[in-house]
Amino acid sequence: MHDLSGKTAIVTGGLSGMGLAIATALAQAGASVGVGSRSVTGNDDPAHQDALKQIRASGQAVHACRLDVTDHASIDGFISTIKRTIGDIDIVVNAAGMTHEQPVCGHSDTLWNSIIETNLTGAFRMTRAVLPEMIANGFGRVINIGSTAASVGWADNPAYCASKAGLLGLTRCVALEGAASGVTCVMVSPTWVETDLMRNDVKEIVAREGKGRSIEQAMADITAENPQGRIIQPDEIAALVTFLCSDAARGLTMENIQVSGGSLW
Length: 265
Prior knowledge:
By secondary structure, this protein is an alpha/beta fold. The protein contains eight helices and seven strands. It has two domains: about 10-195 and about 235-260, 3-Layer(aba) Sandwich (Rossmann fold); about 195-230, no CATH class. The longest helix has 29 residues, at about 110-135. The two termini are about 30 Å apart. It comes from Octadecabacter arcticus 238. Belongs to the short-chain dehydrogenases/reductases (SDR) family.
């Protein structure tokens, strides 16, 4: 539906969860895709063969390499490699993220800094690395994967909420900076999405509760709390991101699009 042929996209955190679904959808739409992940050791890393096979099934050029968005040198090396192997970058999807269950009281500086550096500063650094060329070329799409946590508090996740609220501010500034040059910037903010990251977080919640609730019970409770009676799936987020990267969405910028199934959180 949304032809991205001839475009090159990079997706951070692109070998699992929402990032993987987004990278796959962009490739299916015709884009060449550069995938970055902290866990990658090489483009043919055996630990990620299934994920890479999924992205490459469309037949588009795909290159995966290690990327740590908290490290300047890693970002520079990643950008240089992608440009050299598959082309100038038209689209960046900042999907790398992390969280950890911890209340404000007792929240260490180390944990706070790690979450902010990954979720917010990492997205800033990635965007800063590609935005000048997008502006010069007269086209660009910057998609930041946010969260309903950007506008709704989440107990025991102060750094995560702060990072996503900050990401929304960054999104608006990038949108204004790129608007006159055909560059858009949008934040996509889901509620719970069924990924390994979600299950790991639910596991932490259950452990801290100490009530004997199983992970499956907790997942069922989250499902029941959603007005649609379900958990959002990664491919739903991927479909929205693909649309936002297309010419059909050129008038959409500076937005925070929430994907919640009617849930406030």
